[in-house]
Amino acid sequence: MDNTFFIEKAYINGTFISRERTFDIINPANLEKLGTMPDLTVADCKAAIAAADEAWKSWRSVPVGERCAIVRKMFELIQVHRETLAEIMTKECGKPYTESLGEVEYANSFMEWFAEEGKRAYGETIPSLKGNTHLATVKQGVGVVAAITPWNFPLAMVTRKVAPALVAGCTVVLKPASQTPFSAVALAKIAELAGLPKGVLHVVTSKDSKGFGEELATNPLVRKISFTGSTEVGKTLMEQAASTIKRVSMELGGNAPFIVFADADIDKAVEGAIAGKFRNAGQTCVAVNRFYIQEEVYEQFTEKLTQAVAKLQVGDGMDEETQIGPLINQKGLDKVQEHIVDAVSKGAKITTGGKALEKLFFAPIVLRDVPTKALIAEEETFGPVCALFKFKTEEEAIGLANQTPYGLAAYFYSENIRRCHRVSEKLEAGMIGINTGMLSNASAPFGGVKLSGIGREGSHYGLDEYLEVKYLCFGI
């Protein structure tokens, strides 16, 4: 790997730093040590926040055109070094190299989008009811932003927060997942090469996620916290952030349904199912978790999906043939096996796969005739498991899909345009995939409802998350 970007250091106040105390990062494909990172303390986190606050005093006054130009330069550098970034990503999180290249492109789409959208943070003029004043609004960056990102998208979840924050005039203290810090630190190097001023972006690395989370959520210098991760941790951070009345954005857990109606194009539905289920071995927040198939096409869909899943190649992400990489750790593998054992014990049948392979690899599985009382109907599996349920009517499918406290993504297939409108309006999710298994786009809002979070990322809504509206009243 290119040592220019594979850096075993944290990044505070414009300097890459080391510490005597470190922690290991393990390649999940071979369980070998990939490298080490400084195990920073909460005191280090406080220092980064203080430096970010000091840098904000000047960064917020930099003309928006200059801020956007730096983010644009970061976009260009990511394009040049995309293969190196993809290799780092594959080795730290296990996803296939082709997927990692796709994530680099996806991550960079946020850099490109916000480099342009940052120029469009428009205010407005407001008619005065009394006529003796001029009224207007302007939008200004909220201040220091704390960003906490997960391991499953180690670059895209970073750029989706950092890009809008930077163009808005905010400074950022980023805490990446301890399993996958190298992609985040590589982005810090990209920012440095692009000319981002000292103190505007910090990357703090530590195994003390709880302690760092509390500091970032409660430190009064931090004006906003943006978190992607589990609902349980999100709740804790929101409670802590309330002590200083912070702005919060939370992209939390999901339990995505995938509905196939009898009037669907079954071949396209199977194709969408593979796309929506197996990215990063099913370890994504918008991955399909529950397949609801109308009884008239249940057997046909089950057979075709089984054939498609049986062909998926499992292996090291750096192998060209690999389509499914490893689970991130033993805990993730154990949960997959727990859900399968529970479903089978309650009557589900395996049509293909389902065996634990060497190390953290697991053969993708299709489970048919899964009962609604199975654990997998209620909990997010986060693994390469297709659980198939049967339904009779449209109303039943909608009821089953909404029978969860989560509401991040939902998918359905139908060739009936009226049904498409009806069902999309009734599903309780922040994002609906209609005849597609792929949702994400930098120009569209990403986020959920219910226990799946609050706020939106991407699009002009994602920029607004980092801006305060200030009202100006001029007496005349």
TrEMBL record:
Active site: E251
Pfam families assigned to the protein according to its UniProt record, in alphabetical order: Aldedh
Keywords linked to the UniProt accession: Oxidoreductase
Source species: Sphingobacterium wenxiniae
Domain Aldehyde dehydrogenase, chain residue ranges per copy: 20-471
Gene3D superfamilies associated with the record: Aldehyde Dehydrogenase, Chain A, domain 1, Aldehyde Dehydrogenase, Chain A, domain 2
Domain of life: Bacteria
Designated name of the protein: Succinate semialdehyde dehydrogenase
Family membership noted in the UniProt record: Belongs to the aldehyde dehydrogenase family.
Record keyword Membrane present: no
Stored InterPro entries: Ald_DH/histidinol_DH, Ald_DH_C, Ald_DH_CS_CYS, Ald_DH_CS_GLU, Ald_DH_N, Aldehyde_DH_dom, Aldehyde_DH_Superfamily, Succ_semiAld_DH
GO BP term, example: gamma-aminobutyric acid catabolic process
Keyword rRNA-binding: no
GO molecular-function terms, A-Z: succinate-semialdehyde dehydrogenase (NAD+) activity
